Amino acid sequence: MSWKVVFAKEFTEVMRDKRMRFQIFISPLIITPLILAGIGTMAKREAKESQARTAVVATVRLESALKLATALEPTEKDAMRFVQTDEASVESGIRARKFDAAIVLPEDAAERELNDQTIPVQVRFDMSNEDSRVSGNKVSDFLKLRSENIGAARLMEAGFSQQLAKPIDVGDVPVKGNGGRGVLMMSMMLPYMLVLYAVIGGLFVANDSVAGEKERGTLESLLVTPISREELARGKFAAVAAAALVSGILSLVGMLWPFYVKLSAFSWMTEGGAAFTGFQIASMALVLVPLSAMGAGILLTISTIARNQKEAQTWLGPVMMVVSVLSMMSMMMRPNTSVFVAAVPMLGPALVLKQALQSIINPVFIGIAAGTSVVYAVLAVWLAARMFMKESVLLRT
Amino acid sequence: MLFGGTIQIREYGMIVVDALVKEYTGPKKQVTRAVDGVSFTAHQGEIFGLLGPNGAGKTTVLRILATILQPTSGTAIIDGSDIREDPLAVRRKIGFLTGAAGLYDRLTPIQNLMYFGRLHAMPEDLIKRRIDILVDKLDIGRYASRTCDKLSTGEKQRVAIARAMLHDPRVLYFDEPTSGLDVLAARTVMNFLRECRAEGRTILFSSHIMAEVEALCDRLTVIHRGVVTATGTIPELRERTGATTLEQLFLRCIGEDHDSPMNIPHPKGIAK
Questions:
Q1: What is the three-class DSSP state of A240?
Q2: Per-residue pLDDT at B60 exceeds 60
Q3: pTM score of the predicted model
Q4: B70–A2 C-beta distance less than 8 A
Q5: Predicted-complex ipTM score
């Protein structure tokens, strides 16, 4: 059981290294939730400021429809200011950010108004410009509301109830029990974060444990001790996998604690509450085990092949890219997609996490994702062990 | 005993190396022979030198004898254990020291020593007893609880010596142990070597510095391009080569003193 001696020493070293402590403990537990809080708070403030900002809206031929122009006169609450212009100047003005949006009436607007006909009104804005896009939406909403008001006034003038033009009144009532938009956001973000942490969590430990030993010249001293290479590899693998697993579990805790510790910074995310069952949390934690083992196997293989830590970092670049892309794909995919996707490494487990967060239980999908993850983990560990046993690889300097 | 161990006297060779060969296969399948039929015997209580220029194959021989590398053919018996058949038994009997201390920087000297003691499967109380003896003997106490990244090169080398001696090995390998060390640290290593010999330990000392070999070694073997070119005591080799200086002796032993008729030709006839 010498592997336990190796494991204990590796973990003692991890606990002494600020860089590793930060990556395994602080980053998932504190930094990730803080980033989320920062993003949420910023997005909320931006949205508020955008709405409050007075939009400069160009109008073309609005003055020709006198009654409409009067009815559309914005109030202070509408946060927009109209500027009369000609049609030729609209697009260039929006591109030059002189106007945020424009209301363009047709040439026959006056005639249509006289005949009580519908006047087609265009709202123009620039989709690539955030201010213009928000202003365009604001102007559209403003026009729809005013149009409803004009219609209601006309009905009343004609002696009809204004409810005649409004047969239904739509109201949104979110279903409670599965949590609010925070849970939806978590189901997008968490699978990506968990998969990433399950791999990155062991990165520094893996780099340090073989490539680092080569670099510092400690590997030779280790290899002349009466411990078999299998035991040595086992101890190092256990340390890397444990670091990845701890990091993954802490990233889960890091995403959950804001729901239970009510801080105002997280209110945008947690206001709908969260409703995680023990089964959901257990299944999420369980998916991390094969993921961490696979990540540890991959990282240890790279660390064993590399001559030093710098070379290991270079090799890790493309691997990280693949891991990131596969786990990021889960953000864009529906959780209950084709079962074949379950077999894709990292993407399958990420979608299982997404399903768990959205209270979807698909045993076939979970079975395939878990089964293939174990197979990939075994392959990765086998490869790492094989590399560790090859003297031409292990003693490459 | 200076290092607190016990050495039993053996009459036969403590290190018996028999026709060691090590080949490496390159990326284009080309085979390079780094060690080519190396044989020698080192006896109990002897400092046996392994002399040769850089790249001669000394480190490869030491790594094979330490069971870090597998020989392509040939074998060696270390204190009665075969490196091929029972590498773990060989590792229990040897201590290994190089110029690089090879310590874990984030651990203290004591933690480094505890780790290696556990890897040697020594009982905890024995590890502690041995550490006490070595810390005292090598004057490590002043910095025993400081992490190794804060130690000087000389201090690190003392800890590395303690690590090599922790399990009380009968055989010690030294691979260019003074390279990169200052005069004080190098002297610590040299004194340690002499003390080990006085205790009856067998020492295999690899170096490319002729003066060190002359000062320490009882006998030596010269290796050049993976092949043994000469073996004997310094006086024997002087007589054989007719060399008057150490430099001349070294060059003639590796067949590189081309103007001299006493030049020992390379056994495999490899030209410069």
A1: helix
A2: yes
A3: 0.80
A4: no
A5: 0.87
